[in-house]
Structure formats: C-alpha cells, structure tokens
Task: inverse folding
C-alpha cells in the first residue's frame, strides 16, 4: 500500500490524474532538437538529463524554451507513444501547453500539466520516486517509500 | 476567459470541425495563460517544414484542411525543408520530399500564401505599427515586434494556424502594453559596424537577455532593415528575445521611454572585444580544418544583400573541392535574375536554393563535418541540427574561402 506523505498545491493547467516515476531536470527544457521523438531520449547536449528518457515519466522541469517548432517536436513524441505521463513546471510555457492541448484534440491522449507549486518539488524528490499528478485539482502527491 | 456568442458558437461546431478544433486550441491556450479574451489579428505567419513538424504536424494541418479550414486573415508560411524545384540536386530522399509535399498541399488548401519565406515582412505580409498579429518564426517575430512595432508572441506550431483560421488570438504576453517595457540596457561602445557585427551584437544581446526585453543604445540611425533583420534573428536564436528596443531607431523607443520611467535592471556594455569573444564562441570548428561547404542567406537574402554578394564575387569562381550554397526566396531569385545577378554567379559555380535554407533542410545527408556561414543563427542552430562544426565569419571571408580568382 502506498502511504501518502505530502500534498503540494499548485495550478492545474490541463486535466487528468496519473501516478508515475519522476524524472527531474533543473534547467529550462527544449523539445526542438532536444528530444528524439522516435525514442523519447533526451538529445540536447546542453541538458542536465542528456541521454535519459522521458517516456512514461512524470517529467519535472522549470520552464520550456527554444524554437517555436517545439510544440511539433513534443506532439510527435507523444504521437509516437514516447511522451511523458505528466508534466510539472515552475511556470509553464506556450510550447508545452500548446502541444499537450493538441495531443488531446488530435490523438485523444491526456497529459496532466501542473505548474506554480507552492514549493520547489525538485528539491523534495529525486529521479525514480513515485508521485501522483492531479491536473483536475492542480496538486501533486508525494508518497512515502 | 470571456467569449462572445459567436466564439461560443464556433466552439460548439457551428462553423464546422476545423474552426472548432482551432477555437478549442485558442481557448485552451488562453486559459492556460490567463487571457481575458480573444483579440482580432490582422495577419498570421505559420510553420510547415517537415524537418521539425514530423508526422504530427502533417496530421494537424491535414485535419484542418480536410475539414474545410480556411485562413481568415492574410497568412504566409515559413521556409520549407526542401527546395521544391532543386530537391534532387540537393540529394533530398524521395520519401522526405513526399512528406513535405503533403504539408504544401495542406497549407495551400488552407489558403496560406505559399511564400515559403522567413522574411514575410519584406514581401506579402507587412504589418503596420500597433497591429496585433500571430506569427511563428522567431526571427520574424523579433522583426515585427521591434522594427515595425506590431504585436505578437512567439506563436508556436499549432497555435499559429489556429489563429489564422479563426482570425483571433488570446490576449496575453506581448499583446499587452505592460509586457513590452524594456528591462536590460545594452550600451554599445563600438565605432564602426560591419555586417557581421549586427549578427554578433544580436547574439550577445540574446544570450544575456534570455526572455527579458533588451534596450540597445548606440546603433547608428542609418542602420538598414537587413542589418536589423540579422540582429533580431541572432537575438531570437541565442536567447528567446521576441522584442527589442533600439534608442532613436525602433518606433516604440522613439515614441516613449522604453523603460517606462523606471531604471534598467542592469546596464551591460558591449565593446569591440566582446564582439570578437562572441565570434570565437559561436565558431566551434578547429581553425585549420578544411571547410566543405559555405552558406549565405540566413535569414533569406534580400535583393540588396544579393547585390553585395554579386559585387564581392566579381572575377572569382567557386573552388572545385567546396560547395557554395546561397538561400533566398523564389521572388528574390527572380528579381535578381532580372537584374543580371543570378546567372553569372551560377556560371561561377554558386548553387542557389529557394524556399528553404541550410538551417532547416536535411543538410545532414551530405555528411559535412565543417561548414562556414556569415549568420549567427545558422551557426548556433546547425551544429546540433546537422551534427557538424561551424566557422562563423564575415561575408568577405566566406567568399574568399569558397572561391578563387578566375
């Protein structure tokens, strides 16, 4: 049985509820030329999570950045089945929100996106920790080991 | 977000499926960013190059086109990933070409002006001061906001065509006066400006600004539109600059204090030495390794820039062991031909290419390990895009590298 350790409140940007393992980048993240849509591998040579894979993860990074084509790169990654389970941003960005809304419209795939958490979650948890993201309520749940 | 009855009707599907999808995206994005309403736009500029859009991009544009979507406002399109006429010469695989053709068919069905240009403000899509527009292409966004004083965010793929179809965009970010105020001041301590310097200044400003709004002091009043185009393209790709102000040059800085009476957060001086340091930082190739391809035309060349290259090329031809590729719009190519600028250069071994550019076409196919360009944007983007090294040099050195006396 999972034991709830903490609930952190934020803002739900897109709906949905998932539980999954965390992948954390402390840097602004770039989808355009930064992720290989065919695998979900991070390919941006300047990224602190280079060579890690975002597929099926609760992907935590502060902001989006990079080319305005980023929404297409992200959408393609989702289309290929290599998208993250959920996203947590400090403050979300146009590329990220647009791609997630399009994924729902085009492929019926829902990716909850939560931002503006009341504390910096990347300091509290580590890669591989199981957490829940609730885009409907705008909150994140952290479980005890 | 508060919607009008007409907008609610579109959301309910009254104008058909394409409009409904586009409206859902506009409203979803608007709500994510706290927009209070949708505002009308006077034009759009969209992305449709396969290299970045992938199959997902085809899916979205075809879905809109098949469901009868039509652009409500004048809409131009960014360069393609291939030259539609010379694709075989440039070794583009047939299946790649087919994908780009599907995108072309979709955008034409949607009523997009098939300009395939990153410089829509130089032809076919020229906004006026203060107009709200929804443009993608970071360099065009920087130009439209800064040099013209029109208003757009860095509209991303998907949102761009949706705004074009509805003729509206959620009001947030740079559409609002309070978000157009400068925060950083860059003071140039430079006596004489070369064309390359405008790219390099843009790169420094972009790197230091991130997404903040820079104000630049010390650009000569007689700076050309092409030089501002280059400055903006570098700033937009080195950082996320969507708007810059230049004292005594750009319209919003001429009309009022770009800092709105406040002090700049930081004052940054740029000297001649800073320019040289940034040039060295942008180049990542070993100084003596052989250059295999030289490319000009990022952003795509204007007729004036083509004239300059023509003059510098007099009495020279392209060396046997090097490629020299120059990118421009199809219209600029045709005008250049009328002026007698194209044929002599083609005879001298230059490969012109239209409706695409080295940055977004699959140059990787050629397996180059070292290219040279006079564009900071091209030099910043191509190493990760095409897995190669770049030398960043001025137009003269690019020409001397690629050519020899007749």
Result:
């Amino acid at each position: 049985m999972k034991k709830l350790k903490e609930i952190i409140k934020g803002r739900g940007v897109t709906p949905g509820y998932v539980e999954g393992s965390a992948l954390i980048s402390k840097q602004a993240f770039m989808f355009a030329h930064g992720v290989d849509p065919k695998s979900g591998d991070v390919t941006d040579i300047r990224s602190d999570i280079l060579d890690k894979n975002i597929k099926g993860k609760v992907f935590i990074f502060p902001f989006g950045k990079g080319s305005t084509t980023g929404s297409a790169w992200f959408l393609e990654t989702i289309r290929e089945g290599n998208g993250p389970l959920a996203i947590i941003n400090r403050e979300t960005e146009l590329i990220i929100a647009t791609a997630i809304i399009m994924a729902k419209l085009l492929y019926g795939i829902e990716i909850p996106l939560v931002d503006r958490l009341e504390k910096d979650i990347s300091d509290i948890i580590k890669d591989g920790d199981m957490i829940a993201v609730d885009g409907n309520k705008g909150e994140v749940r952290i479980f005890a080991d | 977000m508060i919607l009008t009855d007409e907008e609610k009707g579109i959301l309910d599907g009254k104008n058909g499926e394409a409009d409904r999808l586009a409206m859902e995206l506009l409203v979803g994005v608007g709500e994510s960013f706290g927009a209070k309403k949708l505002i009308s736009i006077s034009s759009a500029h969209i992305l449709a190059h396969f290299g970045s859009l992938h199959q997902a991009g085809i899916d979205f544009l075809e879905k809109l086109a098949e469901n009868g979507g039509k652009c409500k406002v004048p809409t131009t399109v960014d360069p393609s990933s291939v030259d539609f006429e010379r694709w075989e010469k440039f070794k583009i695989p047939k299946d790649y070409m087919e994908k780009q053709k599907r995108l072309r068919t979709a955008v034409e069905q949607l009523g997009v002006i098939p300009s395939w240009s990153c410089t829509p403000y130089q032809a076919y899509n020229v906004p006026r001061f203060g107009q709200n527009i929804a443009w993608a292409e970071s360099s065009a966004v920087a130009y439209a906001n800064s040099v013209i004083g029109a208003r757009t965010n860095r509209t991303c793929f998907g949102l761009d065509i949706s705004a074009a179809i509805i003729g509206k965009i959620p009001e947030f970010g740079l559409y609002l006066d309070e978000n157009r105020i400068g925060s950083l001041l860059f003071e140039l301590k430079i006596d004489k400006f070369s064309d390359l310097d405008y790219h390099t200044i843009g790169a420094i400003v972009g790197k230091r600004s991130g997404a903040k709004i820079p104000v630049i002091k010390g650009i000569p009043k007689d700076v050309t539109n092409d030089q501002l185009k280059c400055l903006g393209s570098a700033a937009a790709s080195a950082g996320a600059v969507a708007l810059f102000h230049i004292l005594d040059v750009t319209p919003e800085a001429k009309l009022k204090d770009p800092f709105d009476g406040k002090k700049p957060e930081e004052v940054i001086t740029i000297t001649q030495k800073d320019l040289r340091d940034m040039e060295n930082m942008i180049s990542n190739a070993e100084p003596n390794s052989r250059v295999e391809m030289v490319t000009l035309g990022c952003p795509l060349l204007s007729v004036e820039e083509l004239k300059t290259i023509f003059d510098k090329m007099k009495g020279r031809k392209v060396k046997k062991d090097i490629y020299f590729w120059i990118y421009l719009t199809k219209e600029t190519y045709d005008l250049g031909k009328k002026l007698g600028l194209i044929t002599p250069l083609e005879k001298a071994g230059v490969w012109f290419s239209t409706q695409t550019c080295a940055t977004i076409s699959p140059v990787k196919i050629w397996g180059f390990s070292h290219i040279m360009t006079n564009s900071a944007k091209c030099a910043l983007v191509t190493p990760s895009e095409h897995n190669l090294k770049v030398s960043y040099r001025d137009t003269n050195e690019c020409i001397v590298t690629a050519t020899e006396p007749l």
Q: What stands out?
A: The longest strand of chain B covers residues 293-301.
